[in-house]
Structure formats: structure tokens, C-alpha cells
Amino acid sequence: MGALRALLRVEWRNHRRHPWRTALLVVWLALPSAGLVAGWALVRTVPDDKREYIAARYGAADLLLSQVREPVFEAASTNWPADASYTRFDLGEEVLATNSGPRLVSTLAFEPGALEPKGLACGIAVVKRGRAPVGTGEVALSPSLLAAKRARLGHEVEWGGQRVRVSGVAVLPGDLRADLVVRELVRDAPLGERRVLVRYHPSFGRSWGQELQRRGIEWKDRRSGQGPHRQDRMESAVVLLVASFGFAVAALVVGAAVSVGLRRRQRDIALLTSLGTPRFLVARAALVSIVAVSLAAAVLGAGMGALGAALVHPVLPLVVGRLVGELEFRPLSFAAAPALAVVFSTIAAWPAILRASGLPPRVALGLARPLREVSGGVPWWPLGVAGAGAIAVFTSRPLVDGGTPGSIVFGSILGILGWASAAGGLLRLLGRGAGRWPLPLRLVARDAARAPLRNGAAAAAVLAGLSLAMLLSSLSGAVQRAAGEAGAGRDATLTLFLAGALGMGLAVVAAATALNAVEAGPDRRVLVLTGASPHTLRLVEGARAAYLALVGGVLSVPAGLLPTLGVLRLADVPLSFVMPWPELTFALLILPTVAFGLGMFVSFLLEPRRTHDRAPLLTPNP
Amino acid sequence: MSAPILRMEAVERHYESAGQRIRVLGPVDLELARGEFVAIMGPSGAGKSTLLGLAGALDRPDGGAVFLDGQKLWGLRGDELAALRRRKVGYVFQDLNLVEGLTALENTRLPLELDGLARRKADPVALAALERVGLGELAHRFPEELSGGERQRVAIARAFVGPRELLLADEPTGALDSLAGETVMRHLRTACDGGKSALLVTHDARHAAWADRVLHLVDGRFAHDNASVGGR
To answer: Could you tell me if the ipTM is greater than 0.90?
Structure first.
């Protein structure tokens, strides 16, 4: 135990010596943890739960009478007890002239007081600002109609040939963007379908309902109302899946950072083992260290997620276009975040820990730098997997019922996996063939080839996001063209997806580049000594970032477009291939260029401003 | 008589440590003639590496002046210092001399390539430098495929490639066995006999014996005021 404690002290000091590397791990693990906690809490508030669903139809009432004709209802309700509580409301549509032309809008008309918090119609519509309209001279309008009428609360607007005052802003809880007019109900002049909300009274028996039916009035009991079935399991599965993807990407960075850290401590570890420290103890200490960092990151991330969810919740209705429920945190999310963080980071770090603790001390102590594999042939196996995926996609036959065969999905996944696994091998191949490339590119290609797993994973992360963006964009373009909407605007979801893919790609490339730059520190020193100008050093760092982005971007083209071709071939209607130019431009030009610029800029920020500000490159003797 | 390749006048260097200003070097004077091979010996912490850093424009003195091939280093910008290192000075250290991602030939031609020389012109020059240290056949090997002695010889070839005239060597044989160390020293000696100059920091008196002059640095000053006195 004493030895482990001593080794853990070494690990702790190592984290303190390299705070930026530890911070990198913490940030990457904290983000998916935050996403898990916040996402799970927010996702639960968005869809209708049964209570919200029923409130939107029954308000606070117990019974809903529909298709009501006023004389019939008056006759039927004559014998109701005096303290029976009910209210009428109308549900209709009308055409409203606006500055942008006529619009078909929904109209709801309520009796006075029905929308108040204790009113029976409370929940069917909500008056967000102002008050419910009183009399025929007032209306409450939805925000969309206020905008269309260029009116504000208190203004007068033209309505059915007369001027009416806007008394409030009203919305439907389930659709904040709906065009809605709320008016006061005129008993003898129903607008569309008249309904009545009734609170249950003990004197209502079986005969009460039979009497209504006999008179042709439909009624429903609130308790029989079927709310949407809460898709709790589905929600949880989706949130966990997305979070797991985030943790998997974070694991790439964690594995790379741990690998770089342990390589740089190779001599220390060899010294410890040569002094008699058992290898398993070294490995255990490194493992405990990474578990501790993961837990700390997950706790931090969960806290950030809870705070973020609390901050986002009030503005969520603006995003999703409906009123949302109360914020509820899932206790499971607070347990799942650390568990996933620990599992993913441990799995990612384990190979590097095993390699570092298993290196014979004489090898580790005898080398100035770790021995690494430079050579490598064509990555036949991964390319074979990608090829098998392509074959699966192109040999698919449409299902009898017209559905899409699973082989398309399977082939597409195989393709992405194949190209992603080929990334490391291709980096090695490129490193070998870089002999005639310009110096900065040659250096970074050879450096990237020395850590093919880590850099291949970074390129694969770029590939995964961009290839999916290309696939979706191309399919969407083909469908738009077939529907004769070729000139229609680009779907906002596609743009968001592309932005997300680019953001993730840049973040992963930045992390991998930073780690590569750390490893290439001694080479940078030699370059400085040999007379490389500051500009050349900046070019090298820029090329380092651009290279991984470009390799990922290039590989994303076949991985994204081949499945598209397969899907188009099987479509029921003839669809023509549409080249996703925006995604291609981003993958092949903009992402590498941005990465290049960022790499150069960071290198510029980090370089010393004056010669004597820099630590001497020769060993100082103070 | 031609001007010395290196001249240091009353050079001083201090470091800040735990809030205290510690003088690690100087004031010292030193002249290195063209074709001269000077060894500097002294205990750890005597200021040997600091002297070498100042001589090679890697560091700036707090006092005094350094002249490299007649050019005063004070006031030069980063890119001007880099150009000076490309064209005038070569370095050899105990380890980490070579860029791991470049072959022996690419490492040797690095200063020429950085200076914008076309590869077809740089390659014969670099290959000739490698052949001078007996490594022409290993030109396309990567550093990790070379032994420690071979790496140091590549570093020497690079240090003297093209027009570079001054080699600064900090314990270049520290990580080598005695045979490989002797080989490195012989190549240094040969280069100086051919007109190049070298300033060598070493702990090993046998290696220092290859030099034209041996200077002893103690507590930041030369033990004997013979820094500009020639003689072997």
C-alpha cells in the first residue's frame, strides 16, 4: 500500500507539472458528462406528458362536450344542479388579412374568466402577457400574428371590418408558433365548433350521460383521455447513445493524452521498475490516476450540466416552440456520467498503460526517445471492410414492401468503419511517401505516421461527422430535386448538423495536434537550432493541424457518398445524385484551412517575443 | 590575419532563481580564430553551456557583446538570428540532435532547405557532408535506425554543411562509448583542419586533447586568462 501511495504521489505531481494536459482530459470528459445530465433533464421537459396532453384538451374540467348546439345544450342543462360548474368555448378558423397577405388562423373563444388560473379552460390556451379579451372590441393574438399585423399589446388592429384592441398575447401550450386569435365567446353566435367543459358533479349519474347522448351531444371523460405514451425508455436510450458517442470521442483524446504522457515518462517508469517496483503496481497507479481524473471531470461536468440546464430551461420554449414542463433531473444521469466517463477513459488509457509498464527497463533507459514504428504497408484489411460495405450497399435489392433493406444500413456502417480504421494505415503510408513533399508537410506527415492509432482516430472523428453530413445533404438534395424544389433553401437541420460535425472535427483535430506538437517538442528544438525562422515553425504547426483535418476530410468523401449512391439506386421514385457541394467544400477546403490558420495562430501566441524571454535551449546551469 | 569567427567581449549572464539574481557567467572574453578548435572544460554549473548558448545566438548576454563572423548579435530580430544560425553556426549536443521524422540525408540538408536551396542542389552538398563523416551509405536511414555514434556524425555533417563555419558542441560524446566518442572527435578535428572552427564543451580530458586550446571555466570565469592565447 505504501508503494502504491508513493506512486500515486508521483502521478499527482505529474498532473501538477502538466496542468494543461490534465485540463485537456478534464474538459473532454466533462463536456459529455454535462451533456448527459443537461440533455436528459431538458429532453424530459419537451414532449407532452399525459397531464399536459389532457390539460390542452380538457383544461381543468372533468368532462368535455363536443359538437354542441346551443338550444340543445340549454335544454339538456336545464335540470343540472345549480352548483354545477361548466363553461363554453368555441373552436374555429378564420381568414385574417395581414401585411403579408391573408392567413388562415385558429380562433378560440372563451367565456369570461375561463382562462384564469382557476377557470375551467385554463391550459387550453395561455395568455402570456396582458389579459384575456373582454367584449367584442378586444382580441388576444399570438406572437406570430402580432408580428404579421405589426402590432403590439394595447394597439388597435383591423378585424372583420372593425377596429379591435389587442388586450393580450395568447399562445397554445403545445405550439407557440401557431397563428391564434382568442376572443370572448358570444353565446348566440358560435365561431366554428362549440364545446363545453364541465366539472363533474356527484349528482351526475349514468342517466346524465345517456340524456346527453340522446340529444346528440358527444362527451368524453377526462379520465378516459389517452395521453401520449411517455417514451421514457426511448428517450433514455437516445440520450445515453448520444452521450456515449461523446464519451467515445473524448476517449480518443484521453487515450492519446495518456499515451503521450506515459511516453514522455518512459524513463521514469523504467527507473521505477529497475528499482524493483512491480509492473502491475505502476499500471495500477496510472489507472487509479486516470480514474480519479475521470471522476473529477464527470462530477465537474455534471455540475456544469445541471447549471446549464437550469439556465437553458427558461428559454427552451423559444427553441422548441411549445411550453415545456418543469425541469426534472434524473438521479440516474448523475450516476451514469461518472460511470461512463470512467469506463470509456479506462478502456482508452489501458493499452497505453500496458505498453508503458511493460516496456523492458533496459530498452526504456537505453533510448533517448521511444522506439516507434515508421514503416507500414497498405491497410488492406480496413480497406477490405470498406469495400465489403460498398458491395453490400450496391448489391442490395429493394424489399417486397418497398422498404429499405438492412444491407444498405449495414453496408454504410461497414463503409464508415472501414474508412475510419484505414485512416491510421493511410497516415503511415503517406508518411512513407512524403519524401518529396515540402519540409513542413513532410515533417508533419512523418510525425503523424509515428502515432497512427492516435492520429488515425482523430482523422476518423472528422470522417464520421463529415461523411454523415454529406450523406444527409446529398439525400436531402436528391429528394428536393425530385419534388421540384431544387431552388428551395437549405434545411436548417442540415446546416446545424454540418456545423456540429465541423465543430467536433476541429476540436478533435486541435487535441490531436496539441499532443503531436508536445511529442515533436525535441524536433522543434532541433529546427530552431538549425535555423528555422519563426515563420517556418508556425508553418509546421499550421500544417500539423491542417494535415489531420484534410486526411479526415478526404476519407469522408467516399465514406459519405457511396451509401448515398446505393440508397438512390433503390428509391421508389427516380432520384438523381446531388453533389453536396457545401459539405465537400467544408471537408476539403474550409476545415483544413481553418485548422491551418488556428495552428499558425496558436504557434504565434506561444512563441517567445524576445530571445532572452525564452528558456535557454542549451541546458542552463543556474 | 583574418578576423576571428567568434569574439565575445566582457560577456555576462545572470539567471533569476527563487527571487535572487545569480551570475552564472562572466564577465569573460573569448576569441575563436578561423580553423581553430577550442575545448572548454570545467565543473558542472561553471557556465559552459551558457557560454555556448551565448556564442550561438541562442541566448542574449546581460552585459558585453558577442560578434559572430564580425556581426554584432545584439539587436537582431528573431528571423535574422535564425538566418545566422542557418548560415554560420552548427550545433551538436549529447542527444536529441536530429529530427526524428527526417532521414540522415534530410537532416543534413535541413539548413540548406530552410535557406531555400532547391533540393537537387542541396542533396549533393548534404551527401558530400555525410560522406565526409563516413555515412554516405546510410543517407536514407531514419535516426532511430542509426546507432548513437552514427547520429552524432550526422549532426556533425549537418553542422558543417554548406557555408557554415562554426560548430558549437555540448558534450557530443557524453552518451557514446569510447570508440564512438573517439570517432566523433576525429571528425571534428578533421573538419577544423579543413578550415572550420569548433567550440567544444566537455568533461573528458581525452576528448579535450583533440583541441588546439583548452580553457577551464570555473564559477563563470576562465581559470587562466588565456582565452585568446593560441597554442595546443
So the answer is: no
